[in-house]
Each structure stands twice: as structure tokens, then as C-alpha cells.
Structure prediction request, 144 residues.
Amino acid sequence: MWKALENALIPVAAGGKLLLAIYNDTGSQSARWRWIKKTYNRLPRLMKTPFAILVSAPEEAKSLVRSLARARPSEYIQSWTQYDQNRGMNHWHDLIDWVGGYPYEVAKPEEIFDFYRARGFMLTKLKCGAVGLGCNEFVFQRTS
Prediction:
């Protein structure tokens, strides 16, 4: 990842902008997901689907319970039947993309900030916080 981040700055002219989205480093949670993703990719094909179901079951159960608690079970059903309208892929393929997405590299926002500041970039916009395992988003401008 760090070599790719280094390469990303090469074509940016003075005054030019660089936009990045990097998975947030949440410590042990990120380490657990790295293990899950690595394990999924090492499994024989026949074991991948059961593993993905097992790994995703807790979050799916929470989502179902939330929709039932709001007396709107159709919300959960729609999360499967209409998912592609928002994400461009169906719910199952997105789940497999997440569980099997390896390599999985993460960084803390300050690591990205320090990395680019040391290379003549100024942070002009940042979206982070409450992203959990999602991506922190950065906009840098080359100052030199």
C-alpha cells in the first residue's frame, strides 16, 4: 500500500490535487478482518460459501433484528432484493467482495497525513470518524 501511495503522487503537478480513500485502521478489529479475509482466500472453493455465511451471520442478524424492532421487516428483505440499486452489485456479491477482499491494508488518518505532508502535500479536506472499518477520505494539494 505504501509503495502505491508513493506512486500515486508522481503524476500530481504543483497545485494539483490527490484524492484518496484508505481503509481505517481500527486496531484489533482490522487485524481480525485481515485474518478473516486471508483465511477465506486460503480455503478450498467448497468451504468459502459456508465461511462467508458464518462470518456475516452476526451482522445480518443485527440488521434483521433492527428492522423487526422498527416493525419494518420489509427493510431487511429490501436490503437483499434492492441492494444493487445503490451499490451496483447484489448484496451477496458485495458480502463476498468484503469477506474475500484480500490483501486488506489499513492506515490511521495521521499516518496518511504525515506521509503526504513529508512529500510536499497539504491536506485540504478530510472525511473520517465514525467510519469504523470503512474508508477515511482525503484530499491533498501539492504545495511544491
User: Anything to note?
Assistant: The CA atoms of residues 22 and 112 lie 9 Å apart.
